[in-house]
Design brief:
Distance between the termini: 27 Å
Mean pLDDT: 81
Largest sheet: none
Radius of gyration: 14 Å
Strand content: under 5%
């Protein structure tokens, strides 16, 4: 049974599974708290299979600073650590 992470985390099981996969606390909580998250996922292309523009757009969506000067590899790394 998953640990209770308090009222700030709605789905403790999903939160712990994401943390076990190496996601940050912030990203794990954001995903676990999103509505319908348990029904989504696993359908997007791997970052390496996306174009630099697609990665840039995703980085912009999540608010990664300095994205305009990043290479494709740097965008992948930044998105994974966000």
């Amino acid at each position: 049974m998953a640990k209770n992470h308090g009222p700030q985390v709605k789905d403790d099981d999903q939160y712990e599974a994401l943390r076990d996969k190496g996601y940050s606390k912030q990203k794990s909580a954001r995903i676990a708290n999103s509505e319908g998250a348990e029904k989504r996922g696993g359908k997007s292309d791997k970052y390496e299979e996306r174009t630099k523009k697609e990665l840039y757009d995703e980085a912009k969506k999540v608010g990664i600073e300095g994205r305009s000067s990043m290479s494709k590899g740097e965008l992948v790394k930044a998105l994974r650590s966000n």
